[in-house]
Design goal:
By secondary structure, this protein is mainly alpha-helical. The protein folds into 2 domains: 63 residues, no CATH class; 115 residues. It is 65% helix and 9% strand. The protein has 6 helices and 3 strands, in the order αβββααααα. Strands 1-2-3 form a 3-stranded antiparallel β-sheet, with no helix packed on it. A hairpin with a 2-residue loop joins strand 1 and strand 2. The chain starts with 8 loop residues before the first helix and ends with a helix.
Length: 191
C-alpha cells in the first residue's frame, strides 16, 4: 500500500475525510476523536471541549450544593438520633436471633458490619457538624451513643455464632436504645 505522502492532494483529502475518523483513545473517561494523518494522530479541533465544560460545570454546581447550608439544628439532630434508634432496634433483632441460635453466621456477620458502619458514619456526621447554640451537650451525647452502638455491633460481627455473646449484645443494645429514646425526648421538649 502507498504511503500517504506519495498520494496527490485530492487523494490526501479523501484519506482524511470523515470516514477515516475513528475513536482511538479513552482518556479520563472521555472519548477523543482523532484524525488519521500518516504516522501521527492529532486531535480534531473542537471535539471534547463541550464535554469538558459540561463536566466542569457539573462539578462546580455539585461543590456548591455539598458545602452545607449552616449549623446542625435541633430537628436535624433529632433525625440523626432517630436513625441511630432504628439501627439499635435492627441490631437488637439480629442479636436476638443470634442469642436463640436462629440466624446464620454469615448473615449475622454481614448485617452487623453494615449496621456498625452506618452507626459509625452517623457518629462521624454528627461529630463533624457545627451545632446551634444550646444543643452541644445533646450532640456530644448522640455521638457517644453512636460510638457505643458501633462498638457493640462490632462485637456481634466478631462473634456471630455465640449465643452468650448475642444475649449480651442484645442487653447492651437495649441500654443504648433507652439512652437514645431519652435523648430524643429531650430534643423534642420545647426550649
Amino acid at each position: 500500500m502507498e504511503s500517504i505522502g506519495a498520494l496527490g492532494r485530492r487523494e490526501r483529502q479523501a484519506w482524511r475525510g470523515p470516514l477515516w475518523r475513528q475513536r482511538v483513545r479513552w482518556k479520563l473517561g472521555l472519548v477523543r476523536l482523532v484524525e488519521r494523518t500518516g504516522d501521527s494522530d492529532r486531535p480534531v479541533a473542537g471535539k471534547g471541549r463541550g464535554v469538558r465544560r459540561a463536566f466542569s460545570l457539573t462539578v462546580a454546581v455539585g461543590c456548591v450544593f455539598l458545602t452545607g447550608c449552616g449549623p446542625l439544628d435541633r430537628a436535624e439532630l433529632s433525625r440523626g438520633v432517630e436513625t441511630l434508634s432504628a439501627l439499635a432496634a435492627e441490631g437488637q433483632l439480629v442479636a436476638d436471633g443470634v442469642a436463640s441460635d436462629r440466624t446464620k453466621t454469615t448473615y449475622t456477620r454481614v448485617h452487623a458490619r453494615t449496621l456498625a458502619d452506618d452507626a459509625g458514619h452517623e457518629a462521624e456526621k454528627l461529630a463533624d457538624a457545627g451545632v446551634q447554640t444550646g444543643i452541644e451537650r445533646e450532640r456530644d451525647r448522640a455521638v457517644a451513643l453512636a460510638q457505643q452502638l458501633d462498638d457493640t455491633l462490632g462485637e456481634l460481627e466478631t462473634f456471630p455464632g455465640g449465643e452468650r455473646t448475642g444475649a449480651q449484645v442484645h442487653g447492651d443494645l437495649m441500654r443504648i436504645a433507652d439512652g437514645l429514646d431519652r435523648l430524643t425526648s429531650r430534643l423534642a421538649a420545647p426550649l
